[in-house]
Design goal:
This protein is an alpha+beta fold. The chain is built from 4 helices and 5 strands, in the order αββαβαββα. The protein is globular.
């Protein structure tokens, strides 16, 4: 069994976050392989990339455009952080919808697992 959450936690350790100091890691399962990503910040903050998109794009770049599961971990979040502060951003949810099905299992560290369509109801889709 693949432990995506453990892979997401490990990925967070590589995050480049000199501005927010808020490391996030993600791991996706695609094509039977695990692809990890971390958030990478930039002084021009709009150029920052989230961990979830980093992991998904790594899978796509490796030839696996359909993801079957994703996990993410905000390792620097306070122990008493509310679930809303641990959730993926809207941009990441939309990218998940592009490369995963509505019932894509999304595991969020310290929150649980839910289908993507619970996180992003009525997602924008061209297909």
């Amino acid at each position: 069994m693949i432990d995506l959450l453990a892979a997401a936690r490990r990925a967070a350790e590589a995050a480049y976050v000199p501005y927010s100091h808020f490391r996030v890691g993600a791991a996706v399962l695609a094509g039977g392989a695990v692809f990890s990503g971390c958030n990478v910040e930039n002084a021009s903050y709009g150029l920052t990339i989230c961990a979830e998109r980093n992991a998904i794009f790594a899978a796509v770049a490796a030839g696996h455009p359909r993801i079957t599961a994703i996990a993410l971990s905000c390792v620097d979040a306070a122990a008493d952080a509310p679930p809303g502060s641990l959730m993926p951003c809207g941009a990441c949810r939309q990218v998940m919808a592009e490369f995963g099905p509505p019932d894509l299992p999304v595991t969020i560290d310290r929150v649980g697992t839910m289908p993507l369509d619970a996180l992003l109801p009525n997602a924008f889709r061209l297909t």
